[in-house]
Design brief:
The protein is α/β, with parallel strands linked by helices. The protein folds into two domains: 11-179, Rossmann fold (3-Layer(aba) Sandwich); 185-385, Dehydroquinate synthase-like - alpha domain (Dehydroquinate synthase-like, alpha domain), CATH 1.20.1090.10. It has helices spanning 22-26, 41-44, 47-56, 74-86, 98-110, 118-122, 185-203, 211-233, 238-252, 265-277, 281-296, 301-311, 321-338, 355-362, 376-385; strands at 11-14, 32-37, 61-65, 91-96, 133-137, 149-154, 159-164, 172-175.
């Protein structure tokens, strides 16, 4: 186990009707609030009106910026930065899922930085401070409600880049599972793949003697899979929605990565698919991860044997290690198919003629990953495995 220094400053307010607690989060603390959200869903189901009513009773000035799309855009972030500076915004309230929250985080650090906010995403600068960000979560998936991360797409060149900084952790996150009962299947199950992927990126590590967190991660993965099947059977299952909502937070607040080296190659590989074709992040990960597993597992076969036996209950009796691993990956692919996700470009109806371009962009700053370092040729081969 490696040394670590971990903190998560985000206050979680979880449970049915918890949106009412927004009043206590803002009362007397903020004056000028930027309300940041996506499109029509929060208005269609009444959440927008509820939030506006609460804010209206707190004698605060509310400025709105809507229009966040999946794979949030740099141009909208810059618009939010402009609004924040011109109106002395002291809280950005993100109402939505990971794209809205990531956009809000980028606005928060950009408003406190005199140069181009894209500098943070290219590594030219590091965030030193941020406007506070509060969250009302509507889509469990990215874990952005408590994480250090933000992923933004620059339309100039279609570059999708991620950033991690403790400065970007939200100050509070309100999480009402009831808000997720109306989610379409694609958002529900792509979100579930997203949270599993956050565990994978930490679980597949070269760091020895991390058994305690390994057990936590395996338990989390098994719980997510169990409740995914429950939601496939009954999307209105409030208890399963609650389990999934909490799992998404725990999967990416950093606790499952303490004391260990993390990988993140698959996310970078998936980001290029999302940047080029606009596909939902969780769907790109469903396509990439089985192929990545098949390509890298021999770097530490025992780690994948543990994954197969502990998470997917593969029996080791009468099988060699390679057979156990491949059966485990097969069970993972079967799980993805059973919840309606593709595991290949063809199943996802995505073009297959840009593998070299995507591999080049994914590795333009050098090899990616740590479990097994991947160069351009490796990434191209993973795309081909996912054909």
């Amino acid at each position: 186990m490696k040394n670590f220094d971990f903190q998560c400053k985000t206050r979680l307010i979880f449970g049915e009707n918890s949106v009412k607690e927004l009043k206590n989060m803002i009362s007397g603390n903020y004056k000028n609030i930027l309300l940041h959200y996506g499109g029509g869903s929060i208005k269609k189901y009444g959440l927008y009106n509820q939030v506006i009513q609460i804010l209206g009773k707190e004698n605060v000035n509310v400025f709105e910026l809507s229009g966040v799309e999946p794979n949030p855009k740099l141009s909208l972030v810059k618009e939010g930065i402009k609004i924040s500076r011109e109106n002395n915004i002291d809280l950005i309230l993100a109402v939505g899922g990971g794209s809205v929250i990531d956009s809000a985080k980028a606005i928060g650090i950009g408003a406190k930085y005199e140069e181009d906010v894209w500098d943070f995403f290219t590594g030219k600068a590091e965030p030193k401070e941020s406007l506070p960000v509060g969250v009302i979560l509507t889509i469990p998936a990215t874990g952005s409600e408590t994480s250090t991360g933000s992923v933004i797409t620059n339309e100039d060149g279609l570059y999708k880049r991620s950033l991690r900084s403790n400065e970007m952790r939200p100050v509070f996150a309100i999480m009402d599972p009831k808000l997720t009962l109306t989610l379409p299947d694609k958002q529900t199950f792509a979100g579930i793949m997203d949270m599993l992927s956050h565990i994978f990126e930490r679980y597949f590590t070269n760091t020895p003697n991390v058994d305690f967190i390994d057990h936590m991660s395996e338990g989390a993965m098994k719980s997510i899979i169990k409740n995914a099947y429950a939601l496939k059977k009954d999307p209105q299952n409030y208890n399963a929605r609650s389990e999934i909502m909490l799992a998404g937070t725990i999967a990416h607040n950093g606790v499952l990565g303490i004391g260990r080296e993390e990988d993140w190659a698959s996310h970078k590989i998936g980001h290029e698919i999302g940047a080029l074709y606009g596909e939902t992040h969780g769907v790109t990960l469903a396509i990439v991860f089985p192929a990545w597993m098949k390509y890298v597992y021999k770097a530490d076969t025992d780690r994948f044997v543990r994954f197969a036996t502990k998470v997917f209950d593969v029996s080791a009796e009468g099988k060699n290690k390679n057979e156990i691993v491949l059966e485990g990956i097969g069970k993972f692919e079967d799980f993805l198919h059973r919840i309606g996700l593709p595991t290949s470009f063809i199943e996802g109806n995505l073009p297959t003629d840009k593998f070299e371009l995507m591999a080049d962009k994914a590795t333009e700053e050098g090899p990616i990953g740590s479990f097994k370092k991947l160069f351009k040729e490796d990434v191209a081969n993973i795309y081909k495995l996912a054909l």
